[in-house]
Amino acid sequence: MRIARYSMAGQDPAFGVVELAEDGGGHPDSVSTLTGDPLAGPVQYTGERHRLADVRLLSPVIPRSKVVAVGRNYAAHAAELGNEVPGTPLCFYKPNTAVIGPDDIIVPPAASQYISYEGELAVVIGRICKDVPAARAEEVIFGYTVANDVTCRDLQEPDKQWSRAKGFDTSCPLGPWIASHLTLAEASDLVITTVVGGEQRQHGSTTLMIHPIADLIAYITSFTTLLPGDVILTGTPAGVGRLEPGQEVSITIDGIGTLTNTLVPAAAAGSHTTTTGDSTK
């Protein structure tokens, strides 16, 4: 099942189940509206259906408390930036104010002149959990989505810690929806491809993670409690690079979908703001 969060003119955001024409349903891509939030409890279909082209997709989840990201979880990516592979997961936080959705614009802080993309698999947590054994990690996963760990590379090194470089507003695009039907084994064998301005930049597989998904959940919950809707970013494959203002970046994960955003310079963003993860343009 693909769970989306969307809006229409004059209406509050809603959750729905996405049905694609490629699934063989005999109808255009559509979204069927749900009552309430599937991360908060049982939901039902309302009977309302919209063409997917007629709605605006939002970030499929607004983390209730945090995004926990993992750095250098692919050996080739660590090597391309001249870093050693960490012996244990290298974790950092992004605030929920960093989250934006599909087609929203990325607005870097004015202090940065070097913005980099990082295509990643994101894990959406479905229940409150602490000290989860790796063998039971699948029990706490609601589903998976696509993420872009946008980074101010020129701030990352001098700051020595990554709050400003990776936690700025709009630094965590998520979408286009949550794939709740994937098993842990399936999510551990997915191809990630990043295209910038029509040129392929990244092409890797989640099989190449140094610390696999279950181990990440076990490690992260050993020091922090995860809440329903919290998100784990699992690291990026090799091929990261610079985004220029005006460039569009599209990250595709097979079995999930494609997340597309465009970088704009801070001076050109105008009245752009991010409120509870939904940007206004």
TrEMBL record:
<feature type="domain" description="Fumarylacetoacetase-like C-terminal">
    <location>
        <begin position="66"/>
        <end position="264"/>
    </location>
</feature>
<dbReference type="InterPro" id="IPR036663">
    <property type="entry name" value="Fumarylacetoacetase_C_sf"/>
</dbReference>
<dbReference type="GO" id="GO:0016853">
    <property type="term" value="F:isomerase activity"/>
</dbReference>
<dbReference type="InterPro" id="IPR018833">
    <property type="entry name" value="Rv2993c-like_N"/>
</dbReference>
<protein>
    <submittedName>
        <fullName>2-keto-4-pentenoate hydratase/2-oxohepta-3-ene-1,7-dioic acid hydratase (Catechol pathway)</fullName>
    </submittedName>
</protein>
<dbReference type="Pfam" id="PF10370">
    <property type="entry name" value="Rv2993c-like_N"/>
</dbReference>
<dbReference type="GO" id="GO:0018773">
    <property type="term" value="F:acetylpyruvate hydrolase activity"/>
</dbReference>
<dbReference type="Pfam" id="PF01557">
    <property type="entry name" value="FAA_hydrolase"/>
</dbReference>
<dbReference type="GO" id="GO:0019752">
    <property type="term" value="P:carboxylic acid metabolic process"/>
</dbReference>
<keyword id="KW-0479">Metal-binding</keyword>
<feature type="domain" description="Rv2993c-like N-terminal">
    <location>
        <begin position="1"/>
        <end position="60"/>
    </location>
</feature>
<dbReference type="InterPro" id="IPR011234">
    <property type="entry name" value="Fumarylacetoacetase-like_C"/>
</dbReference>
<dbReference type="GO" id="GO:0046872">
    <property type="term" value="F:metal ion binding"/>
</dbReference>
